[in-house]
Amino acid sequence: MEYIKNKNIYRVSFLLGLSLILGLSSACSDFLDESDPSNFTVENYFTKPEHARSSVNAIYASLRPTMNSGFNGGSWMMTEFATGLAGTDLGQAVDSYYVKDLRNTSDNSYGLAYWGDYYKGIGNANLSIQKIPGIAMDEQEKKLLLGEAYFMRAFYYFHLVRMFGNIPLVVEPVDLQSEQLKPKPADPQAVYDLIVSDLKMAEEAGLPLEDQSGKVSLGAVKSLLAKVYLTMAGYPLNLGASHFQLAADKAKEVLQSGVYSLFSSYDDLHDPKKKNGQENIFSIQFKTQVIPSNWQVAIIPYNKNISKYSDETGGIYATKAFVDSYEEGDLRAEEKEFFFTKFTHESDRSKTVDLGGYFIYKHFDTEAQLNSANSDLNWPLLRYADILLVYAEAANEVGGPSSEVYSALNAVRSRAKLSNAAGLSKDQLRELIWKERWHELCFENITWFDMVRLRKAFNVKTNKFEDFVGHKFSYGPVLTARELLFPIPTSEVRNNENLVQNEGY
Question: Which residues are CB-contacts of 91 (< 8 A; sequence separation ≥ 6)?
Answer without folding.
Answer: none
